[in-house]
Structure formats: C-alpha cells, structure tokens
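Journal club side-thread
Mid-discussion, someone asked how the predicted structure for our own chain would compare to the paper's figures. Pasting it here so we can look after the session.
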Amino acid sequence: MEGSTAKTYLQKSLDEWKEDISEVLAEIDKEYDEVSQELKVYSYKYGITKQVIQSTVNNDIIKGIRERYHKPFEENYNKLKEDIKDLEEKKRVFQMFIHKIDEVTRKENQTNSNEYKSTLVSQ
C-alpha cells in the first residue's frame, strides 16, 4: 500500500509538471504562429520591393524605395527569421521535457507493474 501511495504522489507530481510545461508549449506555439504569419508578410514585402528596385532605372527612385521600404522590410524580415529560430529552439526544449517526463512515467509504470506481479507470484 505504501508503494501505491508513493506511486500516486509521483505520478500526480509528474502529471502536474507536464501540464504546466504543456501550457508553456501552447503559448510558444501561439507565438510561433503569429511570428510565422508576420514573417510571411515581410517575406512578400521584402521580395516585392527587391523586384521593383531591380526593375527600376532611376537612382533617385531606387534610393527612396530603399530608404522607405526595402531596408525596414529587410530588417523586420531578418529579425522575424531570428525570432522563429528562437521559438523553434524553445519548442524543441519544452517538447524534450514532455518526452522525458513520459519516459520516466513509462519506466515507473513498468517497475510498479513488475513489483505487483512479483507480489502476486510470492503469495
């Protein structure tokens, strides 16, 4: 009975921790989706301005486009790419937590199952 109580406490603690990590992971996923959408927008804006600049002959117009659009779009695009990389790393780390918790839970369940079988055999 004492082992059962310890198992219940351990399982409850791991489940609570996994739930907390899952909430963090859900927040990361939400932020990832938002940043991904912004990245797509700036990818188009950056690509379009680059094409327009390449198709324009007048240097004054090119300079104006670069200052007003191209440089800010490029900066935002590059920043968002870095943000996506950071979020992917966070996702990977928190998914690793969940995987490790599941691994420990599975091992504990196997250990407890084997102990239960041993108890039945010895009776």
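Post-session note: The chain is about 95% helix and 0% strand.
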